[in-house]
Amino acid sequence: MPPRLEINVTGESTVSRHAERGVLSIAVSSEGPSQETVSQDVTSTSNQLRTTFHALSPKTASGDATPDAPITIFSMTALTTRTWIPEDHTRKPFGPRLFSARTSFHVVFRDFEKLAAVAAMLFTTPHVSIESTKWSLTDDTLAGLASESRKMAMRDAARRAEDYAEVIGREVLAVQITDRGSSTRGRTMQTARRAGQPAGAVGMGSLALEPEDVELSASVEVKFVGE
């Protein structure tokens, strides 16, 4: 009888779907020698943005976003402040005491055209900066994609083991499965364009946002044995 056979393989998979949501991370900040001025700058600007985002995210009676709402959800952090006295390279204080204030927004867009229009507005709004733009999927789509990816990773592992076993004329059976987890990846491409945009680009004047596919990868370690 041939000796017991053991094959350890790693199965991997990557699946993708076109982005369903665009997520803006926005900072509102101000800095200067007057605490009252910087706080007022940030408070006033944040209130204006909150009014804009609220108008773009109408809700149903249950509190969920309406089917045609450009923004599905947004949140705003509380105002934070800081004060300090500038120092030179020898750590000697110089100049007047400075103050800063800051809030931030997390805004999820369903409508990419509206995202582009809002981003163009934000680029010219004092005290506002866009810290990141990310592409994502809905929770339901992501759950389905994760299931599909895990199955594909397991099939990949099985095919690898069967390939090895076939060469030596053996049959194998999976006896141990270790989930190595999954990861998602969605990038943002921002490119200055003077004339024309590629298909699928969302225009913002001379800047284009190109929604990309969101990828989900899974990996699994599997032990196979055969007699």
List the helices and strands and how they pair.
Elements: E1 5-18, E2 21-32, H1 35-55, E3 71-76, E4 80-84, E5 98-109, H2 112-123, E6 128-136, H3 139-167, E7 173-185, E8 188-192, E9 202-204, E10 207-211, E11 213-226
Antiparallel strand pairs: 1-11, 2-5, 2-6, 3-5, 4-5, 7-11, 8-10, 9-10
Description:
There is one protein chain. The protein has helices spanning about 35-55, 110-125, 140-165; strands at about 5-20, 20-30, 70-75, 80-85, 100-110, 130-135, 175-185, 190, 200-205, 205-210, 215-225. The protein is about 25% helix and about 45% strand. The chain is built from 3 helices and 11 strands, in the order E-E-H-E-E-E-H-E-H-E-E-E-E-E. Strands 2, 3, 4, 5 and 6 form a 5-stranded antiparallel sheet that branches. It has a 3-stranded antiparallel sheet with strand order 1-11-7. Strands 8-10-9 form a 3-stranded antiparallel sheet, covered by helices on one side. By secondary structure, the protein is α+β, with helices and mostly antiparallel strands.
